[in-house]
Amino acid sequence: MDQPKPPSRTTPPTGEPPAGVRRRRWVGSTIAVVTLVAIAALAWYLTHRPQPVPNAAGAAAAGARGGPGGPLGASGRGGPPSTVGVATSRHADIPVIIEALGTVTSGASVTVTPQVSGVITQVLYTEGQMVKKGQLLATIDPKPFEAAVAQAAAARLRDSAQLDSARVQLERYQVLLKQDSIARQTVDTQDALVKQLAGTVALDRANEDTARLNLQWSRIVAPVAGRVGLRPIDAGNYIASGAATGIATITQITPIDVQFSIPQERVPEIKERINAGAPLPVTAWDSARTRQLEAGTFLTLDNQIDTQTGTIKAKARFANASGTLFPNQFVNVRLLLKTIDSAVVVPVIALRHGPNGDFVYVVNADRTVSLRNVTAGVSGVNDVAIAKGLALGEEVVTEGGDRLKDGAKVQTSADRPPRTTLPDARDASSDGKGAGRRASGVAGTQSEGRGARNRGAETAGGAAAAGAGDSASSSDATSAAPGAAPRATQ
Question: Which of 221, 376, 442, 460 has the greatest count of CB atoms below 10 A from its CB?
Fold first, then answer.
């Protein structure tokens, strides 16, 4: 019976690898850790290396782009001065103007309607024509009215003859009465007949006058002077007296009025000026307020204030000789209330508004600005009066004030130096191209080093030699990077 052999001293315990295998595993793990540390160090250097400036031109360009050494804004802490527009305070007359939206209204707008009925025989005006008062516009067939005049005249003549006969008979009766040859009753009856015939003759005269008036009304004339509108009817049509459409519509345009509303707070000032006999000039402007249409004078105020809007209606009159204003046209009205003489004024855009009230930026002699609170007075179209806080002849900022602070440095367009061209721009471009090529070479060297490290990590048998080669390649790439990186950036 065979005896079991004792275990060999060289045989490892069950479940444990041989000593040579454990040693190779430890060496491979060490090489992998060293490789990862080297790669991490190289990546950190490439991402955190400083950006050098190769020359003065590059430094100037970096400063212009807002980098270190660039402008610090308008705070005045070492940055260049801000370019602003300035104006000098001066004496000027400030007009106090009330602006409002107005509507052009005609002094008279008449629809010419016929006063008799008939057939229109002639239309003697053209659409849009300017007509005078009393000018013939149209005619209605006059024959019926002429016949009525003749009939009334004949009736008057007949009744007049009867009246004359009755008066002669009355005179005879009165003579006989004096001779006591006739009764008084007969005389009184004849006297009554004479008075009756006299009334008839008076009625006949009135009828004749009416017939002649109707004949005159068959000729339709313009009741006012103005512009004729579009023609609503043509010749040959029958028209009734008082027809709504009428023969024509005439609108008076010279002179013409403009009706507008003003705030109720301005009423006392206007009444004061009117009571003093001072003229109140009024101008009408177009919708864009760029062109003056007509100049006129203030006419009157309404007799009550509108409680819903808090305004009162007013009216101004314009000669409108050129016909610029048209009825029902919307215009911008400017009423000159008064003029403030010799006020200290600055442009409106120089006045600014802040939490502490109105202020301006005053330009000092050392080309710095000071924020100064002021009291604004009456504002005109382009200028505003400064009642307090600013002296005559001081310079204030008009443009570019939004970027300023108290004490900031400023300059005007006249103070700004001319721009110059860098002389080495072409050389810098050439150096940049060469640096790019050198950077490409460095990048290739680094790629080869990384390839060598990968091959070393995959080799299991020659791990030590591969690790040594990998460390050498990493150190070469690291030492080459500082010299090549500035040129690549440049």
Answer: 376
